[in-house]
Write a structure and sequence with these properties.
There is one protein chain. This protein is mostly helical. It folds into 2 domains: about 160 residues, Alpha solenoid (CHAD domain); about 160 residues, no CATH class. The protein is about 80% helix and about 0% strand. Helix 6 packs across helix 9. The chain is globular and about 75 Å long.
Length: about 325
C-alpha cells in the first residue's frame, strides 16, 4: 500500500485533495477486504494489511473532516472503526498463534503438551473472529462501494482554500496534543497504549501531508514515530499474551487442578518472559521520549506552525540523528 498520495501538493485545492486522498485510502481498504476474504493461505498478512489500511483511511477522514457533512464523516468513521475492531481481534489471535508456532520449533517434549493446549485455546478464539469478520463484510464489495460513492459525492471545500492551508493547523494541533499525552502519566500500560494509538494516528496523518512540509516529515518525524510503534507494538503484544496466560493459568487451577502441573511450568516461564519484555519496552519508551522531547518535536512544531512558509523544511543531520 502506497504511503504517499500522488498528484497532491500544498497548492492543490482542498476539495480536489480531499477527493483524491479519500478515494485512494478507501480503495485500499476495499481491496484489502477482498484479499482477506479470498486468500486463506496468506490470510494473516492480509489481516494485518487490512487493519493498517483502516487506520490510514481513518486518518484521511479526520484530516478532511471539515470537507464532509457531519453525518457522512461519522458514517465513514464508524464503519472504519467497526471494521478495524473486528479485524483487530483476528489479528491479535494471529499474533498469539504465531508466537506459539515459533515456540513449538525446538520445544522440549515436556513443553509440547502445554503449547498444544495453548494453541487449541487460541484457535477456539481465532475461528469465531474469522466468522465475525465475514459477517461484517457480508455485503462486500457493493456495500463498501456505496460508502465510497456517498463519501466522494459529499466532499466540499472552501473556495480558494488549498491543501496546505487546511492541514498546517490540523497537524500542528495533533503534534501539540501528542506532546501533551506523552507528558502525562508515568508509563503505565494503559498510558503506553494511549501513546501507541495516538502515535499511529499522527504517523498516518503525516504520511498524507509530506508534500507540504518536505524532508522534516519523511526524514525526521516519521522515522521517530515508526521507532515508537515498533517498541510499543512489542509491549502491546506481550501485554495481550500475558492476560491470556494469566486467564488460562487461573482457569487450570480452578477447573483442572489434577492436570495443571502438566502445563504450569511453561505458562509461568512465558509469563516471566512477557513481563521482562514489557519492562524493557517501558525503558526503551522513556529513552525514546527523552530524545523526542530534546529536539525532534520542538523542530516539528516550529515547522508546522509556520503557516506562510512554502519552501520544504528539513532538519540538520544532527537533529535527525537525535530522534532516530
Amino acid at each position: 500500500m502506497a504511503k504517499r498520495i500522488a498528484d497532491v501538493d500544498e497548492n492543490t485545492p482542498v476539495a480536489d485533495a480531499a477527493r483524491r486522498v479519500l478515494a485512494v485510502r478507501l480503495e485500499a481498504v476495499r481491496d484489502r477486504i477482498g484479499d482477506t476474504l479470498a486468500d486463506a493461505k496468506d490470510r494473516r498478512r492480509h489481516i494485518h494489511a487490512l487493519r493498517v489500511a483502516t487506520r490510514r483511511a481513518a486518518a484521511a477522514a479526520d484530516l478532511f473532516a471539515t470537507c464532509l457533512p457531519r453525518k457522512v464523516q461519522r458514517l465513514v468513521r464508524d464503519h472504519l472503526r467497526g471494521l478495524r475492531r473486528t479485524v483487530g481481534t483476528a489479528r491479535d489471535w494471529d499474533v498469539v498463534l504465531s508466537q506459539l508456532g515459533q515456540r513449538l520449533d525446538g520445544a522440549s517434549k515436556s513443553d509440547e503438551p502445554a503449547i498444544d493446549m495453548l494453541t487449541g485455546y487460541a484457535l477456539a478464539r481465532r475461528v469465531p473472529a474469522q466468522r465475525k469478520l465475514e459477517e461484517a463484510t457480508s455485503d462486500y464489495p457493493f456495500g463498501f462501494d456505496r460508502l465510497m460513492a456517498q463519501t466522494m459525492v459529499a466532499v466540499r471545500g472552501p473556495e480558494r482554500a488549498t491543501f496546505g492551508t487546511l492541514v498546517r493547523p490540523v497537524i500542528s494541533k495533533m503534534l501539540a496534543d501528542f506532546q501533551d499525552l506523552c507528558g502525562r502519566g508515568e508509563g503505565d500500560w494503559a498510558h503506553l497504549h494511549e501513546v501507541r494509538i495516538a502515535g499511529k494516528r499522527l504517523r498516518y496523518a503525516l504520511e498524507l501531508v509530506q508534500p507540504c512540509f518536505g524532508g522534516l516529515v519523511s526524514e525526521d518525524v516519521e522515522p521517530a514515530l515508526a521507532s515508537l510503534q515498533e517498541t510499543l507494538g512489542a509491549v502491546n503484544d506481550s501485554f495481550n499474551a500475558l492476560q491470556l496466560l494469566k486467564e488460562i493459568h487461573s482457569g487450570l487451577t480452578e477447573c483442572l487442578p489434577a492436570a495443571a502441573d502438566r502445563y504450569r511450568a511453561l505458562i509461568e516461564r512465558q509469563v516471566a518472559e512477557h513481563e521482562a519484555t514489557m519492562r524493557t519496552g517501558r525503558e526503551l519508551y522513556r529513552v525514546w521520549l527523552e530524545r523526542w522531547r530534546s529536539q525532534g518535536l520542538q523542530q516539528a512544531l516550529v515547522a508546522f506552525r509556520t503557516v506562510n512558509e512554502t519552501p520544504p523544511i528539513s532538519a540538520t543531520p544532527t537533529q535527525r540523528a537525535s530522534i532516530a
